[in-house]
Design brief:
It contains 27 helices and 18 strands. It is of the alpha/beta class. The radius of gyration is 35 Å and the shape is elongated. Bound molecules: adenosine-5'-diphosphate (ADP) and magnesium ion. GO terms for molecular function: protein kinase activity.
Length: 631
């Protein structure tokens, strides 16, 4: 669909979502669909739940988060169950500020922004629909119109609990515009939107001296005050603080603990009592979720301050640690790169994985279990099998430390190092070694790393590098093995022809020239030596093979590559030794012969076609593996 069609469609959609009617009509809507009147917390919980839940290995994964947040299933499950779910049921946690606590760049802001974007979308859906008194700057809940003394009757009839008082502004409007006839008050459907400041707000503290509480709670409107004659006339007040605007939805409080206390008290009153004080008015009721984030150090200094004691009990802290699984970390990098301006650079296979191995190592704590080093722990956490350990062990390891994942290298650092390597060297292709090198260089410039940590981290770089060496060797082998079955068969046929001639004391015929020639002793030995057959034992071995072949022939079976275990092993080893030679050649100054060149090119083509390399990274890989094999 073209963009113009999409715009038109969008406009029609907006129109379709518009609804306006009297309070009387609104009551009909909620009679049919009481969830329309749910609290902000309940709406947020339902939004998360409605997106679906997957059970993976007995763990819950909330789809709402899973396509953007990786490796935090446990933290998210806790957040959803202990906070959102309980808050939706109007339990006491709802009355507390949600504080996400975790290390820098661990996904806290991402999480909050998903909630915001999610709410915007959800309010446009059937299930997430939401209504407000028309013309109210705080999009006040229409049910606030129901007088307190009738709320019990209302509950009996509709099954809906009404909390909160009608705001001073709407109280006045009810009298003046509607002559006190509640049923006639106009209600409209609202669509939450941060840009339009409907139901979603963000507050971030600026300089404490210049910060104005009005940013939170609104302020007197001096342009209209003359008209209305008094500061306590609600029409002379602008209800445009973040707390006002975020009513019915969510407000994000950035850097909450850096904020002046007087701001916190407003929040606390709001979360605790469901209302806050603005201007010279009675308390204003609001229904919104407040979510803040902070790091561990800030949180610790906050709670160690006696002055803040009363505040602690009104905050619910949810830890958001770093991801601890290599495969998930790789996904985080991929996502971040996709969203960045280096998305068109070729990143060689395994480069991100190797970086992730390094990163996760910096986050893990040494297990107290026997025989587990951090690398093994890393593999176990990632769901790989490590001999001698089972899933039970992994669960026990996870329980060893409450605060694992609260320190270490953050994903943004890795992405910055990748970008900087690319930009500095003007690379169009980057491999695992480039990445590790750049990470290492960066550690020296990293101001917030202690000397001890730096040493530990440098050591982890070598661990990651060793892992890469293994990966790289396997990768080349795998690519080589492509023509493996065929090469193995050819080599074996060749060997058997020679063995036959040797045992029968015959000559062989050169397939090209037709000339007679002696059995190729060098070839036979090069294979036999692979499995340690000595010069003295070679004759017996060759005869044994001939006997096996004739036994097969008598039974009408074909002797093939798999018919003799030791021979097969010898052939495989020989092939790999040849591979080494081929790979070594590519790294030396010697020019490969035609046959070797052909093999090299085959391997490179294979790496490009099937394993995600480009010609630069494939050549780099071969050269590197060559140098490894030369050691
Ligand atoms: N577990 C994770 N899953 C997905 N992305 C993550 C994760 N942790 C960090 N990120 C990414 O790292 C970057 C920094 O995260 P951010 O949400 O700003 O962290 P914080 O607010 O905790 O400092 C973002 O691009 C984010 O998408
Ligand atoms: Mg952040």
């Amino acid at each position: 669909m073209s963009i113009l069609d999409r715009l038109k469609e969008f406009r029609e959609e907006e129109k379709r979502l518009t609804w306006e009617g009297t309070f009387r009509e609104y009551l009909e809507i909620i009679k049919e669909k009481p969830e329309v009147a749910q609290t902000a917390h309940s709406r947020i919980y339902n939004m998360i739940k409605d997106a679906g839940v997957e059970e993976i290995d007995g763990k819950r994964s909330y789809k709402f988060f899973s396509n953007e947040i990786y490796g935090l299933e446990e933290a998210i499950e806790r957040l959803v169950e202990e906070y959102f779910h309980s808050a939706a049921k109007r339990l006491d946690v709802r009355k507390r500020i949600l504080l996400l606590m975790g290390p820098v760049s661990g996904g806290k802001s991402t999480l909050v922004s998903m909630l915001k974007r999610g709410l915007e979308k959800y309010s446009r859906s059937e299930d997430g629909a939401i209504y407000a008194i028309k013309g109210c700057p705080m999009h006040e809940d229409p049910l606030h119109l129901i007088p307190h003394h009738l709320r019990e009757d209302f509950y009996n009839e509709y099954g809906i609990k009404v909390e909160g008082n009608l705001s001073p502004l709407n109280m006045m409007r009810l009298e003046q515009e509607y002559g006190g006839v509640i049923e006639e008050v106009i209600v409209q459907r609202i669509l939450l939107s941060e840009d339009r400041r409907v139901g979603i707000g963000t507050f971030s503290p600026s300089d404490p001296k210049s910060q104005d509480i009005a940013d939170l709670t609104g302020s007197i409107d001096f342009s209209t005050i003359a008209e209305y004659g008094s500061e306590s006339d609600p029409r002379a007040y602008r209800f445009d603080g973040e707390l006002n605007k975020a009513n019915r939805g969510l407000m994000e409080f950035q850097e909450m603990l850096k904020c002046d206390e007087k701001f916190l008290w407003h929040l606390l009153s709001l979360t605790q009592e469901g209302n806050f004080k603005a201007g010279r008015f009675a308390l204003i009721s609001a229904d919104e979720m407040i979510v803040a984030h902070t790091n561990e150090a800030e949180y610790k200094s906050f709670i160690s301050n006696k002055k803040n004691e009363a505040l602690h009990s009104r905050i619910i802290v949810m830890p958001i640690p770093y991801n601890l699984r290599v495969s998930e970390e790789e996904k985080i990098y991929k996502k971040m790169i996709k969203d960045s301006d280096i998305s068109d650079v070729h990143i060689a296979p395994h480069a991100l994985r190797v970086a992730a191995i390094f990163t996760i190592l910096t986050r893990l704590k040494e297990s107290k279990k026997q025989g587990v080093d951090v690398l093994k722990k890393l593999k176990l956490y990632d769901g790989q099998t490590v001999e001698g350990f089972n899933t039970q062990d992994v669960e026990e390891m996870k329980k060893e430390y409450q605060d694992e994942g609260m320190t270490g290298i953050d994903p943004r650092y890795v992405i910055n190092r990748i970008s900087s390597a690319i930009i500095r060297k003007e690379l169009s292709s980057i491999n695992a070694l480039d990445v590790l090198r750049s990470i290492k260089e960066g550690l020296d410039q990293h101001a917030s790393i202690s000397k001890e940590d730096r040493e530990r981290y440098i050591n982890f770089i070598s661990v990651a590098r060793k892992e890469y060496d293994e990966i790289a060797k396997k990768e080349v082998q795998k690519a080589f093995v492509y023509s493996y079955e065929e090469s193995a068969k050819t080599l074996m046929d060749n060997y058997l022809d020679n063995v036959e001639a040797f045992c029968n004391k015959n000559k062989l015929r050169d397939p090209l020239t037709g000339d007679e020639m002696n059995p190729d002793e060098k070839l036979m030995r090069s294979i036999e030596e692979q499995i340690g057959i000595s010069e003295n034992a070679k004759k017996a071995f060759r005869e044994e093979i001939l006997i096996r072949i004739s036994a097969y022939a008598r039974k009408g079976k074909r002797f093939d590559y798999n018919s003799h275990e030791r021979l097969r092993e010898a052939i495989q080893k020989k092939l790999f030794a040849d591979l080494k030679d081929v790979v070594k050649i590519t790294t030396s100054t010697k020019t490969p012969d035609e046959n070797q060149l052909k093999k090299v090119n085959e391997v490179i083509a294979r790496l490009i076609d099937d394993h995600g390399y480009n010609s630069v990274s494939a050549n780099e890989l071969l050269r590197y593996v060559g140098s490894l094999l030369n050691r």
